[in-house]
Amino acid sequence: MARIRQSDIDEVKGRVNIADVVGERVALKSAGVGSMKGLCPFHDERSPSFHVRPQVGYYHCFGCGESGDVYSFLRAMDHVSFTEAVERMAARVGYTLHYEDGGGPAPETTGRSRLYAANAAAAEYFRAQLMTPEAETGRRFLGDRGFDAGAAAHFGVGYAPKGWSHLMDHLLAQKFTRDELLQSGLVSQGQRGVYDRFRGRLVWPIRDITGQVIGFGARKLYDDDQGPKYLNTPETPVYKKAQVLYGLDLAKRDISRSHRVVVVEGYTDVMACHLAGITTAIASCGTAFGSDHITVLRRVMGDDSASGEVVFTFDPDAAGQKAALRAFADEKRFAAQTYVAVAPEGLDPCDLRLQRGDGAVRALMENKAPMFEFVIDQRLKDFDLSSVEGRAGALRAAAPIVADIRDPALRPGYVRVLARRLGLDLPEVGSAVERAARGADRAEKRETQRGGAGETERPVIAQSVSLASLPNTRDVALERGAMMAFLQYGHRIEPDLFLRALQSPFGHPALEAVRSSLAATDLSQPGWAVAAVEAVREPFRTLAAELLTAEFPARTEDGAVASANDLARGLLVRELEREKNELLRGIQRVPADSEEGRRLRIRLRELDGDRQRLVAQ
């Protein structure tokens, strides 16, 4: 697939005013020289901590730590790819992009736009068909499950009429080709020719995270339909079932703000949850919930701490229990805490809402059980706990589950839970868990040595360093101010002075990490300040972002430039004073009339001259 030229990516970013883009979503106000601030779009807050510096094209939230350039802002807010973000901004400023593999978008990209258009046209057609007399069966199906016309319209539910090629004929008349319809999965090729894939079915449009229709899920309505109960769009260039989550386009904003998601098992369950006020509900489409789905969700959730929640709902039957155990196998990929909610009497959320109302659906989610506890119970049910042999087998089966709990604050509690379930002494259960943990650690070590570890580990949350955590000392204050000056006004500092000061090592390790990253950056390239921040190693990148976006202590632009130059000189003066002190100590150790003594005194005079020249500037 063609890639956009890097020079074009940089040029577009340079032409876009990030404050204009952010300002369309966040009310920004002045926050000092060259800085603006507003309420963070990534988390709830009472006072603004989200800062934007248009001059360097960067934003940073001092509350939640989110930071980046205009492309990362679009990706986080609209959940688009990097290429899509660049193309949006290029269109905004009227810039023609060039692609490395042929001077234009890749053929696949051009084809994808036609597939999106075909799916959108099909969604409109299905939606209109739901109002026809033939669709009475479909409308009754929805009504019997508690969904009125407003609910159907909100989720875009439609009807695929009976017949051979109604949709195909409609789309061919709109200038789509048969090849495009085949590639989109809207029609199928059989021995009798090309025909509509969905016929005589209720249809749900499946959208990607940006809201574009990429496929459909269809439920059969008639007894003479020999197909499966649910039929989905096949794999296409735009529809990848392992990565698609139904309802995510509607739920993404609430998921991102609340860091909570509810995973249900079907389209009507998603509808029921949303209508009951659980607006973070989503479902997989025609496949089991898997690792690719987790990757998508973690990105939307901002899943970087244990404060988030993932709630799975499963049917209490064998298939539902099997699905729960599959989910548990991937549980460690979430930083968030995971839970399971099982409705009474085997009701799914749709049936629960129909029989007991919206409140019962909300109560189901509130009465969730931790995933570990649920899986422990599933393991124990296969054993006769009234016998010694049964309890011993159950302990061997359940101990690895408790040993798998990485949070040291949680594991002792689950040891006690398991001991109570089994009716065994706490030390006995604790010993079994520790043995299982040691065995898991040895296995993980062997896997690491083979180079295959890391895919299922729970993310490690490093303790970030911030401006607020820096010590309040004279040296640190100078280094902090100098780094703010370098990142924000380096282009306005006298070039020779800037380069000399940038080579002056810092005493504080966090500030030194930021300085060394900037010193290693090509300052001739556009966007060098942002590049330097993004290259800072963890856990110091948050500090670097704050230094780039924090309010600079000056009242005017000219005052900020003067202060930046003074801070650079201050670093050099400090270095000269350090060298002078070392020389004075050296002079005391050598004879005054020696060659070494004369050399040290000459160097002292040079240092005094250098200092006077710096101070006089």
Describe the structure.
There is one protein chain. It contains 26 helices and 17 strands. With 617 residues, it is α+β, with helices and mostly antiparallel strands. A hairpin with a 5-residue loop joins β4 and β5. α1 packs across α4 and α17 runs antiparallel to α18. The protein is globular and about 110 Å long. The two termini are 55 Å apart.
Q: Would you count the extended β strands for me?
A: 17
Q: Characterize the biggest β-sheet.
A: 6 strands, mixed
Distance between the termini: 55 Å
Strand residues, percent: 5-15%
Q: What is the number of helical segments per DSSP (H or I, 4+ residues)?
A: 26
Helix content: 40-55%
Uncertain segments of ≥5 residues (pLDDT<50)? 106-110, 451-462
Question: Rg from C-alpha positions?
Answer: 31 Å
Q: What is the approximate shape?
A: globular
* Mean pLDDT rating: 84
Structural class: alpha+beta
